[in-house]
Amino acid sequence: MEVLNQILSVSLGTIKDVLPIAVIIFGFQFAVIRKVPANLPTILAGFVWVLLGLSLFLLGLEWCLFPLGRLMAEQLTDPVFIHGTEVVSQLAADLDWRDYFWVYMFAFLIGFSTTIAEPSLIAVAIKANEVSGGAIGVWGLRIAVALGVAVGISLGCYRIVAGDPIHWYIIVGYILVVLQTAFAPKLIIPLAYDSGGVTTSTVTVPLVAALGLGLSETVPGRNPLIDGFGLIAFASLFPIISVMAYAQLSELLARSARKTVRLGD
Questions:
Q1: Which of 70, 177, 202, 207 is 20 to 30 A from residue 256's alpha carbon, by CA?
Q2: Same structural domain for residues 145 and 221?
Q3: Nearest-angstrom CA–CA distance, 196 and 15
Q4: Total number of domains in the chain
Q5: Residue 147 — very low, low, confident or very high, per pLDDT cuts 50/70/90?
């Protein structure tokens, strides 16, 4: 009974969230454009599937991804796991940032894998490949973005463990972005800035948010409200750096190859 009540509650909440979107779209269609949309039955059926999909997705977050992220953070920060022996509870307070190696490794791998599977990134990479005539590789862009997210989330986890203020990391990161923008190929700059946004979507955000909250709850002296959030900012910032670095490296290699050909001639 409790499960049915939760399903009903989530479904009603989803309808309330999607209803304003439907009102705006159909309001403009009928009141401003004054035309009946083509394939109206198909569009209405699509809205039903959207409601169903969003409801199931939100239930999946509550039942699976959020608890899983918290559980992984709790297990990886357990002093018994870190030291491999039975320890007294006070040992948890004696751990420093070097003792959380597996947390950083898990953050790196989960950031990389979830970003590679991100539907919005796949769509952007395919379109970028088409528009650039193949100059921007689909897998090259996806891997560059995934590496940026992986490094960013790992660094964000280190920040939570160390207890450092988040703004210094973000300020330094964006200073680096500004410097890269001045020297990176103009073709890649808008795409690099968009890459930061597409990484914070349906697959990445739930696990990253759960990991940050779980880690801040289990590391002694950390406050989930203050320290638990901010990992998504790292996941948005570092792909911009990595994509521009990928373009700069590709340009450097291309120049080196052209120079080698000239010398050979």
A1: 177
A2: yes
A3: 29
A4: 2
A5: very high
**First vs last Cα of the chain: how many Å apart?**
79
Please state the pTM of the whole predicted model. Answer: 0.76
User: What's the domain range around 195?
Assistant: 77-264
Q: Within this chain, do residues 54 and 118 fall inside the same structural domain, yes or no?
A: no
Which residue has 């307070």 as its token pair? 93
Q: Tell me which residue of 248, 129, 152 sits closest to 200, measured CA to CA.
A: 152
Same domain for 87 and 32, yes or no, is no
CA dihedral 72, 76, 77, 83 (to 10 degrees): 160
- Distances 23 to 26, 31, 76 between C-alpha atoms, Å: 5, 11, 46
202 within 8 A of 247, measured Cβ to Cβ: no
CA distances to 121, 142, 148, 180 from 117, in Å: 8, 9, 14, 27
**Same domain for 235 and 111:** yes
Taking only the tens place, the pLDDT of each residue in 115-138 is 888 888 888 888 888 887 777 888
Q: 3-class DSSP state for residue 87?
A: coil
Does residue 102 fall inside a structural domain? yes
Question: Does one domain contain both 114 and 208?
Answer: yes
Give the tokens for residue 195.
């890459």
Number of Cβ atoms within 10 Å of the Cβ of 100: 22
Q: Identify whether the C-beta of residue 197 lies closer than 8 Å to the C-beta of residue 161.
A: no
145 and 40 part of one domain: no
Q: Is 194 among the domain residues?
A: yes
69 in any annotated domain: no
**Closest among 28, 232, 87, 138 to 37, alpha carbons compared:** 28
